[in-house]
Amino acid sequence: MSWTIGFVNRAAEDEVAALPADMIASFLRIGNLIKARGLLDVHEPYVKHLEDKLWEMRLKGEDGIARSIYVAASGKRVVVLRTFIKKTDAVPRREIALAYKRMKEIAP
Question: What is the CATH number of the domain that holds 31?
Answer without folding.
Answer: 3.30.2310.20
